[in-house]
């Protein structure tokens, strides 16, 4: 059923602050085919996001005698810090109810941290929109306007969600994201089904459910730090330093850069200090930190990385050198990709990456890339290979890119 007849906000929003109310609301949602979910949180001064509000709306038709107010709610763990969110986590684990988010990654990080699990089954409307021709990473407001014509008041987007009490405008803003997401989701899924593109979003959903995203290995976090021409020994020390910082940030619940900034880690890794005096010369570090427990831990991390056998040090992540002459081919493939995306109304990000294009340009059908498998090969990969083999050419006709076949004699 289309949600168009119930896509306005309730006159009086339902705010949940008690265990009984949350249990009752989640029991109602468990009978729905799907729920839309959003969060409001703060994390400027913490490592872990501080959950301030969870907004949920039940999808499908209202139950007999049910009001719009009863189909959506803002769950407030700040107003009641002892509120148990277990009924919500149980709802998120219910395999019969689809959990619908828009741009879900940060919301999923919160729930993974709080419950150790990810909501499933899951649909991210931003990914669905990519398969339906709305471009790469379409924003919620633009998607909503395109699909339903609704406009959401964003005047309170920069509010301090940890402050209580919340006023009506703030609650209306928060609930709008889940109330209006219902008709948008239903229209998107109808469009996806009509076009036979359900399989196009599977890998996007699966990537969001990769728990390594939300709980990264501390020893892998050094890869986030931009390095230039770093040698294996420097990378080994940087890996130990970044792992120490990551664990320290989690334990102290502070942002990574509040512990030590990236540039300081890099400088320490390059300088390889052996004692407090050496370490205290690091710009911005200070003698107090260098001489304290933090300094001792930093020096220990440096020593661990410095003592590692060279064959066990991480290697620089260099892009493989492509054969000469591939750059122009990549440019042609970019044009082909853009044409195919326009022709089939699909986002470029979903169809092929720059790495895919470079690999095809260099190795043709021997390239092991997603663009040459499944529906992506059918839409783009086959024509990309034809272009690579010289079996077709690109031209312009009436201001549009067209593909011309090329005869073997040409």
Write the layout of secondary structure elements.
Layout: E1 15-16, H1 19-29, E2 34-42, E3 50-58, H2 68-71, E4 72-75, H3 86-93, E5 98-101, H4 105-115, E6 122-124, H5 125-131, H6 140-148, H7 168-179, H8 181-194, H9 202-208, H10 232-252, H11 256-259, H12 262-271, H13 276-280, H14 287-291, H15 293-307, H16 326-344, H17 348-351, H18 354-363, H19 374-389, E7 392-397, E8 400-405
Parallel strand pairs: 1-4, 2-5, 5-6
Antiparallel strand pairs: 2-3, 3-4, 7-8
Query: What fraction of residues sit in β-strands?
Result: 5-15%
Sheet with the most strands, sense and barrel status:
6 strands, mixed
**So what's the overall shape?**
flat
Broad structural category = alpha/beta
- Main β-sheet, spatial strand arrangement: 1-4-3-2-5-6
Helix content: 40-55%
- Poorly predicted sequence stretches spanning 5 or more consecutive residues: 1-7
Q: Alpha-carbon distance between the termini?
A: 56 Å
How would you describe the overall organization of this protein?
By secondary structure, this protein is of the alpha/beta class. Helix content is 47%, strand content 10%. It is built from 19 helices and 8 strands. The protein has helices at 19-29, 68-71, 86-93, 105-115, 125-131, 140-148, 168-179, 181-194, 202-208, 232-252, 256-259, 262-271, 276-280, 287-291, 293-307, 326-344, 348-351, 354-363, 374-389; strands at 15-16, 34-42, 50-58, 72-75, 98-101, 122-124, 392-397, 400-405. The strands form 2 sheets. It has a 6-stranded mixed sheet with strand order 1-4-3-2-5-6. Helix 10 (232-252) packs antiparallel against helix 15 (293-307), helix 16 (326-344) packs across helix 18 and helix 16 crosses helix 19 (374-389). The protein is flat, with a radius of gyration of 26 Å. It starts with 14 loop residues before the first strand and ends in a 5-residue tail after the last strand. Mean pLDDT is 92; it is low at 1-7.
């Amino acid at each position: 059923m289309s949600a168009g007849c119930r896509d306005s906000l309730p006159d009086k929003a339902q705010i949940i602050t008690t265990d009984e109310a949350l249990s009752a609301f989640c029991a109602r949602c468990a009978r729905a085919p799907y729920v839309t979910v959003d969060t409001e949180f703060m994390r400027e001064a913490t490592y872990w996001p501080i959950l301030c509000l969870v907004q949920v709306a039940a999808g499908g038709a209202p139950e007999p005698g049910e009001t719009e107010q009863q189909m959506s709610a803002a769950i407030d763990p700040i107003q009641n810090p002892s509120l148990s969110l277990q009924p919500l986590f149980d709802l998120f684990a219910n395999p019969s109810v689809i959990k619908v988010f828009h741009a879900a990654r940060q919301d999923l990080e919160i729930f993974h941290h709080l419950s150790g699990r990810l909501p499933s089954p899951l649909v991210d409307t931003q990914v669905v929109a990519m398969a339906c021709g709305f471009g790469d990473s379409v924003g919620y407001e633009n998607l909503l306007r395109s699909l339903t014509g609704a406009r959401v008041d964003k005047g309170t987007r920069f509010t301090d969600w940890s402050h209580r009490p919340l006023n009506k405008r703030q609650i209306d803003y928060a609930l709008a994201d889940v109330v209006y997401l219902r008709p948008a989701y239903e229209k998107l899924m109808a469009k996806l089904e009509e076009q036979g593109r359900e399989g196009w979003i599977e890998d996007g959903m699966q990537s969001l459910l990769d728990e390594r995203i939300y709980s990264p290995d501390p020893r892998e976090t050094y890869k986030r730090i931009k390095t230039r021409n770093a040698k294996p020994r420097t990378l080994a020390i940087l890996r130990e330093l970044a792992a120490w910082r990551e664990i320290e940030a989690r334990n102290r619940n502070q942002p990574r850069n509040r512990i030590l900034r990236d540039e300081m880690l890099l400088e320490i890794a390059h300088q390889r200090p052996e004692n407090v005096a050496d370490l205290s010369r690091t710009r911005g570090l200070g003698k107090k930190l260098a001489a304290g427990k933090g300094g001792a831990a930093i020096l220990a991390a440096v020593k661990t990385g410095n003592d590692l056998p060279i064959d066990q040090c991480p290697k620089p992540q260099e892009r493989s050198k492509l054969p000469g002459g591939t750059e122009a081919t990549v440019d042609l493939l970019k044009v082909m990709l853009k044409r195919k995306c326009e022709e089939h109304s699909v986002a470029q990000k979903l169809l092929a990456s720059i790495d895919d294009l470079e690999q095809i340009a260099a190795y043709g059908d021997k390239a092991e890339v997603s663009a040459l498998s499944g529906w992506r090969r059918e839409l783009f990969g086959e024509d990309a290979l034809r272009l690579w083999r010289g079996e077709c050419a690109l031209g312009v006709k009436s201001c549009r890119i067209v593909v011309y076949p090329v005869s073997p004699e040409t």
